[in-house]
Amino acid sequence: MAGRILEKSIQEVREKARIDDVVSQYVTLRNAGGGSMKGLCPFHDEKSPSFHVTPARQMFYCFGCQAGGDVISFVMKIDGLSFGETVERLADKYGVVLERDDGDGHQDRPRGPQRGKLIEAHKVAAEFFAEQLLTPAALPARQFLAERSFDQAAAQQFGVGFAPTDGKSLIKHLRGRGFSEAELVTANLIRANGWDVFQGRVVWPIRESNGDVIGFGARKLFDDDRIPGKYIHTSETPIYKKNQVLYGIDLARQGMRTTGQAVVVEGYTDVMACHLAGVTTAVATCGTAFTPEHGKVVRRFMGDFAAAAGEVVFTFDGDKAGQAAAMKVFAGDQEFLSQTYVAVAPDGLDPCDLRIKQGDEAVKALIEGRKPLYEFVLRNAMSQFDLDRADGRVDAMREAAKLVASIRDKSKVTAFAQDISRFLGSDVDTNDVVAEVRRQAGRRTGSEAAREQVEVTSPVRLDPRDPRYAVERDVLKLVVQHPVVIGRTTAEIGIDDFTHPAYRALWELVAAAGGPIAGAGDASWATRLRDAAGTPALADVVSALAVEPLRTTKEPDAAYVLEHVVRLLEATSQRRIADVKSRLQRADPVADPDGYQAMFAELATLERRRRALLQRLMPPA
């Protein structure tokens, strides 16, 4: 494994990768005044722009869906990458040479120019293959596509190409473009013996979410093809990891994010058929089974939907292989149990064949007619037994209960038990099924039970427009955006001046960082606060306050700061005055005259304090 990226390199990436430059590649930004820019949010559907970017603080925030952060978190979210992958990609693009700790001395991912060179080689190769599809020699490839109802426009949309049969055309083309043989072997575009990897086949470019080509899949066309396998794919390379690659993710990512649905099909032509039929969230694995790593990629793009109303729909075949694949998903990725579905055509057709025979509407109907994965799996498991016999039904119930016992969400056990009982017949009682599930669950190991412990956090919802906290929010905006201006004016402020839990937590964060004065001259002050937040909810609060415009059209001056600090302190005084008045109403001056007089004295002191605060806002005589 490569060593950990040093913090100073991460900071250099944040500084050089200007957030307005990066975001502008995905969002049309317009000047919003006050050094802020805004546009339509790429993370949810909206008609009026609520997505703000503040270049001076390198932060973004959407007031519609509460997505926010710095340039790294933006790329992570929009391209579905891990933190390390994002840092590497931005470093490649903005010329940052990443420094790492020693690690174990090995690198499994290229950095800097090497990765960029491999990406460029794949881009040129994809263009070459697409051009070759138009040549006379590629007639069999065009016929293959036409037989599946894919015209030239479809081929162009998906970048489909043709690899010439001579086995030397690609290497000649790439060497002529300045790539070394070593680079092309590393990229798995040519073999070590100097021959092209892809020869005489129809070729699909496999792209990352941002559109970069990182590999290819190719389908056999000719009977005399000496390369074994109907399909071949790019082997593992520094930029291509088959267990993390999904064909079509570049086209499906936006639909997955906005609809909360992902459709997982089995092949390249199935992805094409789905997208052309209007199912624009379809992706496919590339020559491998769907793995938990693929599931993580899907979850990143589905975002908030994955934990709630999101759907992952698998179009398994109805045969034994499809049933086995469904079992693997059921057993391997319990994260999706409550929202995973299976769509199987009655006649077992895959989406491509279904589109050929019945048209686009049939493909859409296939997905719309999806069934819960658990139902598909449980029914298949029970159908292995002779359900006409009483002992067969008992055995089927036990097999199904074993599957239900593995489910993390125990709140669904009763519902699943009812389904099992209904499927097997009235002589199998739901209570018996529940009892069997509990018995099976009791046989599980301690480590399995431990893995089911899931930490759930519920951040306090914060409405930025709530007038009760307007002054608190305005002061904290100054603290995050203009620490130099507010500076030592905050010396009188304490945590009790903030009443909303989120604002109290943020003030504690600021105090722990050394107070606003610690942010003076620090361009990464807002980012530093966000990184130290500790929870996603608090990090989002920092992001929002970093980009939200102040209630002034000019740069905040001392008078502006003083007004807001005084209003915050006065609000605290008002709360304390109200508290003392409430205690006075409940007090008995006869039973406790000394206590009663002390409260009167406290009230007088608080009133004088409040008037003195307001006096600070009066113009000098």
CATH architecture of the largest domain: Orthogonal Bundle
**Main sheet makeup:** 5 strands, antiparallel
Cα gyration radius (Å)? 31 Å
CATH topology of the largest domain: DNAb Helicase, Chain A
Summary tags:
DNA Primase, Chain A; 14 strands; 27 helices; DNA primase DNAg catalytic core, N-terminal domain; 5 domains; 5-stranded mixed beta sheet; 5-stranded antiparallel beta sheet; about 625 residues; Dna Topoisomerase Vi A Subunit, Chain: A, domain 2; single chain; alpha+beta
How do the helices and strands line up, and which of them pair or pack?
Elements: H1 7-16, H2 19-23, E1 30-33, E2 36-39, E3 51-54, E4 59-62, E5 68-69, H3 71-79, H4 83-94, H5 113-132, H6 139-147, H7 152-158, E6 161-163, H8 169-176, H9 181-186, E7 201-207, E8 213-220, E9 231-233, H10 249-259, E10 261-265, H11 268-276, E11 282-284, H12 292-302, E12 311-314, H13 320-332, E13 340-342, H14 351-358, H15 360-368, E14 371-372, H16 373-382, H17 390-405, H18 413-424, H19 430-442, H20 446-451, H21 470-481, H22 483-486, H23 501-512, H24 525-531, H25 536-547, H26 558-586, H27 593-615
Parallel strand pairs: 10-11, 10-12, 12-13
Antiparallel strand pairs: 1-2, 2-3, 3-4, 4-5, 6-7, 7-8, 8-9, 13-14
Can you characterise this structure?
- Residues 104-113, 333-338 and 445-460 have low confidence and may be disordered.
- The chain has five domains: 7-94, DNA Primase, Chain A; 113-240, DNA primase DNAg catalytic core, N-terminal domain (Alpha-Beta Complex), CATH 3.90.980; 249-378, Dna Topoisomerase Vi A Subunit, Chain: A, domain 2, CATH 3.40.1360.10; 383-445; 467-615, DNAb Helicase, Chain A, CATH 1.10.860.
- The protein is built from 27 helices and 14 strands.
- Strand 10 (261-265), helix 11 and strand 11 form a beta-alpha-beta unit.
- Strands 1-2-3-4-5 form a five-stranded antiparallel sheet, with helices on both faces. Strands 11-10-12-13-14 form a five-stranded mixed sheet.
- The protein is α+β, with helices and mostly antiparallel strands and 621 residues long.
- Helix 21 runs antiparallel to helix 26 and helix 26 runs antiparallel to helix 27.
- The longest helix has 29 residues, at 558-586.
- It is flat.
